[in-house]
Fold Aspartokinase.
Amino acid sequence: MSRLVMKFGGTSVATLDRIRRAAKRVGREVANGHEVIVIVSAMAGKTNELVGWVNETSPFYDAREYDAVVSSGENVTAGLMALTLQEMDVPARSWQGWQVPVQTTGAHGAARIEAIPTANLDARFADGMKVAVIAGFQGISPEGRITTLGRGGSDTTAVAFAAAFDAVRCDIYTDVDGVYTTDPRITSKARKLDRIAFEEMLELASLGAKVLQTRSVELAMRYGVKLRVLSSFDEYDETAGTLVCQEDEIVENNVVSGVAYSRDEAKMTLLNVDDKPGIAAAIFGPLAEAGVNVDMIVQNISEGGQTDMTFSCPIDQVKRATQAMEGAKASGGIAYTDLVADTEVAKVSVVGIGMRSHTGVAAHMFKALRDENVNIKVITTSEIKISVLIDRKYMELAVQALHDTFGLEKLGGGLES
Amino acid sequence: MSRLVMKFGGTSVATLDRIRRAAKRVGREVANGHEVIVIVSAMAGKTNELVGWVNETSPFYDAREYDAVVSSGENVTAGLMALTLQEMDVPARSWQGWQVPVQTTGAHGAARIEAIPTANLDARFADGMKVAVIAGFQGISPEGRITTLGRGGSDTTAVAFAAAFDAVRCDIYTDVDGVYTTDPRITSKARKLDRIAFEEMLELASLGAKVLQTRSVELAMRYGVKLRVLSSFDEYDETAGTLVCQEDEIVENNVVSGVAYSRDEAKMTLLNVDDKPGIAAAIFGPLAEAGVNVDMIVQNISEGGQTDMTFSCPIDQVKRATQAMEGAKASGGIAYTDLVADTEVAKVSVVGIGMRSHTGVAAHMFKALRDENVNIKVITTSEIKISVLIDRKYMELAVQALHDTFGLEKLGGGLES
């Protein structure tokens, strides 16, 4: 019998009424002949409450206890979902991570799933169970402690179950109706994408489009899981939401698929760094040790043995980055005259697998920004993405201009292909 | 090293601040040289919230899912308590029921603890852990599903751990400062007992004095666990609270130790029952099957082959009892002319191990009630208890009168010994 994975996020199970609505969808898929694995998040707000308690109790908490506490919200939803399905005469039971068991690494708070043995669920499906409801976001470490997978981890739970059980589809029900060409709050011209390639989704996810956890997209790509993002508030049909799929399953798309942005960026510049071999390691080693997520890196042309080194990081890590650099300077690891932090910047990116076969995208992008008098501070590129750091006050303007220039409001618009 | 069990109820861990206060007590016991096993309940109100959700979702719920949902509150408190202790530099970790594992029967919602293997905790204590924080109220069934032990079950968890780990003491921290001669809300003369015998506590617990779960007292009696009930809001000292102990550890006590009451009783009378062999089984079999907790039973003197049969049960089971009796009548199992339910009654009881060696307690009790013109409807007795069913409107009056007549306001008062 075909297996289907359905994941419901926190807003989709926020109340008993919404759990019932989600359960009805599950019931319909059972009626369609599927055995269903349902992955649930905690009811909206619950995880934040638990995280708040942990932080208030212990600012530098033991991550093992953090995991034991914050994983409890999903257990509640899983039991309630199973009960709701039973009320609808659908044979269902709940499973907590350790019962499956979802085996993870011991990296508490950000564990990775290593294996999902299928024997326990298979035995129950063979017994007539139609729905296994799984508490998302959680697993157990090799030491038998509860682990969690990081924020958005239930997406990854869903994809991992879809891979382990060879599911025909993995449907991610959320509070938006799919993946858009850009944030509809910034331009009403934003268009829902029917399909998007894994690689593009990966870039968008890591750029801050919070639809899917990055790790879940990586897993789906590796195991070829058909991943659909759709709204739990709309009626279902076969074309609902956005299908995240292999590049060759996409018949037609624009050269650029989407424009993403990230508001909370900071640009840090070390002035007059001694430009000698190993200087990059001497700078970015201490930053990594301090847990700073360095994103873009630019090294200016060296003049007279000295150079400026610029990098970007999340704005709330500026203090940590500054301390790491001052520490490295004090211990003689690096030498520089000044460290300048610009906390008024944002990152804007265009993403599209069409860029592989198309030249000129960068030139178009820079021209569109110049026409709006937006100054570019840092540029980085990958095979399917171009990102620029600009003044935050121009961010919305830049997103709108790029959305227009690449013709994203309609399929087939933009650059000639 | 000596082991100590400390249990904190819902009001004692209702907020992060109270958890800190409880943790300080634990820290002091560690400083005193103990290895401590802490049993925690859910934060006050949490379990009720979860039970409410289950009932709203599914009136006739799957008890396995009920247990999976309602057990989650204790997991949160256990993690927060461990974190709080760590903040105080006390080496601690949390354990959920399945991690110990606390092995129970499969009677979901009212499971009994069958075994608590000590190996996992012992290994961690040997490693330097000073406090094991255990999520109370929960365990796992032989099938690996989560079970709960019924309301008040964390008391039983505490006593079971004290027995398994051979603890020097089991301290139950709650929102009252011990066991009283009667409810202080009914008479200000109520006096805190320094010591009470297991047998007396058992009678009081089952009579509705909600200080300890009955099962926990049974276990403590069987395994000789020194059980102390004390307030988490008072400063600790060696004589705090009430020690529940063996009869021979009590040097002096009154003949009657306490007056208990139960407000929510109903009296049911079957009129003109055919008085033939097996009639009691024909009545009480169907009641047991319907889940009615029959308490007192009285059979009137038979006249002309017919008799009246009276029993008491909790007031919220009257409907269920009535249906069971009408069903038995309809199927020809029993014959009676009428079923009369009196829902305006209460039970008042005097309890004391001194009654074993003292005669005249019943006579004193009946005289005291007669002096207040309280009519007795049903009487039952055990070796250390006399209970009467009376009109509910006289309940407080009867408790006060009995408290006075047996001189409970001071040690050594009452009947001459």
